[in-house]
Structures are given as C-alpha cells and as structure tokens.
Amino acid sequence: MVHHDHACTWTFQRRHFSTRVQSAFLGIRGDKDAQLAAKNKNIDTAGIWHILPNTIQNSLQDSSKSRFINWLGHGVSRSKAAILQLLTPDEAEAIIHSMKVDKHHPGVMTAEQTAELYVGRLRTARHLIADRPLARCLFDRIRSCSVADEHCLSSSRPLLSLMAHGLQVVAVNERIRLVTTQEGGEHQKHADISEVSDDGLHISRLTFQCYLNPQSYKGGQFRLYPVDGRAPVDVDVHTGEAILFVQEDPELMHGGAPKGPGAAKCAIRGNLDVPLVS
C-alpha cells in the first residue's frame, strides 16, 4: 500500500509539473483546456461581416490582393513563419471601425479579464467573433498567396505549400479575434495555442496575426524570442501585413512589444485549421 501511495504521489507531481511547464510555454494560467474553455465562452455570433460596407465586402472577396512579403527570418525555419500582405489599408480601416471594446457587447473580453487568463498580457481587450464569410475571404487570400522561385522568377509556388502543415490546411477558423491594445499594453513571451474545433474534426496548426494600423502608434511590434537565446527581435510591419506562423513551436516563442504613444493598436488574429487525425 505504501508503494501504491508513493506511485500516486509521483504521478500527481509529474502531471502538476507538466501542467506548469505547458502553461509557461503557452503564456497562460492553469490548464490549457480550461483556459480555452474560458476564453471561448463569450462569442459574438453575429460577426462583423454584415456591418462592413458593400465596397469592403466586395474588396475582401478578391483573393488576388494578397502578396508574399518575406520569410520571418531571425533564425526561424522558412517553413515556420512568413510575412504577407493580407488586407488593403481600406479593408483594415473598415475592420477597425467594426471592433468593439465595450464590456456589455457580445464577445468582448475586457483588458482586466484578458489579464486574468494570459500571463503578462496588459491593457489589451479582445472582441471574439464567429464570422464565416470573413474567415472564408481570409482563407482565400492566404491560399492564393504565392512565393516566387528564387532560381526562376517567372515561376512561383503557393505559400501554404511551403509552410509546415500548409498542405493540410482546409480553412481559417470562423472564430476570429479582434484585438485592441492601449498605451502601456504588452504581451509576454509565449507560443500560440493549438485549438480543436467545436465539432472535433479539425485542429489549428497555424496563426495569422494581421496589424491594422501600425503607422498610428509607437512600439507594439511582433516580438520574436530567437531559439538560440539571442536578444528579442521586434518585427516591423506595414498596414494590413500579417505574420503567419506555426503554433506550439519553440522557434516561434513571441510576444507583443510594449505599446507606446499614439492611437490604440488594432490587430486581427485567427487560426488555420487542418483535419484532426485521431
């Protein structure tokens, strides 16, 4: 019986240690499944598509407007992170006007609530929407983005075909986060969480993080923590550019640099799903 009690204690300690390590890696508080349930319980099921102007809806449906910018670099494997033009300035501005921060609005998680779930995430509110039309347009943009062959500029390949998990991607998940960060806000080092879809048929493997107004404030860049331990690197992007990167990977430990003076930082973030193989 003594041996059984000792074995149970060791198993509990191992699980507790494993949970702590996972939480630190993902920058969350507590168990991953519990955190996912908490952050996804309040969703704006109406989405924002219906309030976007018709001109913007038509523009978003044009998949040819995406463009590969570059690989992220800084020691990250090419197949794991890229920068692309995802939205036009007009589309980005229209999405900003649709974002909500009022705590009484469906899908809004206040800065205080966000700080309770995420370690070191400060002065950042999140508006979680379920928006299939928008997700479909964003997927078409990413899927249409191509990379020129370095040895033959007249030839190109789809960006997703060059990305880890890219050939398996079937959709941008309809759950999309509209994120607003005020001056002094930041997000500490973490890896993005891989999420299973509600129907249990898909799991996310890639994140896109698109910056809607980086010219309107100081700081707030995508901050990469190189895997070799070098100093963090702040990645500058332009309006409508997105960083596409793999989830739960040590090469993509990142955060948000402190947000300085200027307008509120606005971004749109989503997951790319692949079939879940049991």
- What is the H/E order? HHHEEHEHEHEEHEEEEEEEEE
Beta-strand level of the residues, as a percent range? 25-35%
Helix-residue proportion = 25-40%
Number of strands: 15
Tally of helical segments: 7
Spans of at least 5 consecutive residues whose pLDDT stays below 50 are 6-17
The gyration radius over C-alpha positions equals 19 Å
Shape: globular
Major beta sheet, specifics? 11 strands, antiparallel
Structural class, please?
A: alpha+beta
The average pLDDT value, as a whole number, equals 91
The N- to C-terminal Cα distance equals: 36 Å
Task: Describe the protein's architecture and organization.
It contains seven helices and 15 strands. It is globular and about 50 Å long. The chain is 27% helix and 35% strand. The protein is α+β, with helices and mostly antiparallel strands. Strands 1, 2, 3, 4, 7, 8, 10, 11, 12, 13 and 15 form an eleven-stranded antiparallel beta sheet that branches. A two-stranded antiparallel sheet has the order 5-6. A two-stranded antiparallel sheet has the order 9-14.
Secondary-structure map:
Layout: H1 2-26, H2 32-39, H3 54-60, E1 67-71, E2 81-85, H4 89-98, E3 108-109, H5 111-117, E4 121-130, H6 132-144, E5 146-149, E6 152-158, H7 159-162, E7 171-190, E8 202-211, E9 217-219, E10 222-224, E11 233-235, E12 241-246, E13 254-256, E14 259-262, E15 265-275
Antiparallel strand pairs: 1-2, 2-12, 3-4, 4-7, 5-6, 7-13, 7-15, 8-12, 8-15, 9-14, 10-11, 10-13
Please describe the structure with a list of short key phrases separated by commas or semicolons.
single chain; alpha+beta; two-stranded antiparallel ribbon; eleven-stranded antiparallel beta sheet; 278 residues; 27% helix; globular; 15 strands
